[in-house]
């Protein structure tokens, strides 16, 4: 993974990132449970902030990080009003997710692990698929990436191509 420019966390992309003017709840609450991931966090936050679906809130739950994660979160939060920060003593992944879910206001909830990146259209496509199918849940294929011991990536198929874009009963 390439390092992100955390000194300029929100490069000018030409898109607007303001919350909807009516003050309604966001379409998606994107939860990011964070613990000592400064190496990847900037790039992950860039991918969250760069979503084409802009009516989102990004909830960063800092689980007592002891590296530079808190500073990176603060820089991004100062640059993008959609970011909400929950800071707490270290209590584990489950507690972090529960705190994030309690704070979430979105119609849908997504999770972005802080050492992952999300394609810019991911939330737009997932919300569209859920709404078109009248579904409560939408899931997409993804790619796994390793930087060590040597760089490689592997496509992970959740749904066969023939199932993509359709409502599917997994049972």
Walkthrough of the structure:
The chain is of the alpha/beta class and 171 residues long. The chain contains 4 helices and 6 strands. The strands form 2 sheets. Strands 3-2-1-4 form a 4-stranded parallel β-sheet, with helices on both faces. A two-stranded antiparallel sheet has the order 5-6. Strand 2 (56-62), helix 2 (69-79) and strand 3 (83-87) form a beta-alpha-beta unit. The longest helix has 12 residues, at 38-49. Mean pLDDT is 86; it is low at 11-22.
Helices, by number, come to 4
SS content category? alpha/beta
Fraction of residues in helix: 25-40%
Q: Could you tell me the mean pLDDT? A: 86
Give the strand tally.
6
Distance between the termini: 36 Å
Taken in chain order, the helices and strands follow as EHEHEHEHEE
The major sheet is characterized as: 4 strands, parallel
Query: Tell me, what's the shape?
Result: globular
Radius of gyration: 16 Å
Contiguous uncertain segments of 5+ residues: 11-22
Q: Strand order of the main beta sheet, please?
A: 3-2-1-4
In terms of DSSP E residues, the strand content is: 15-25%
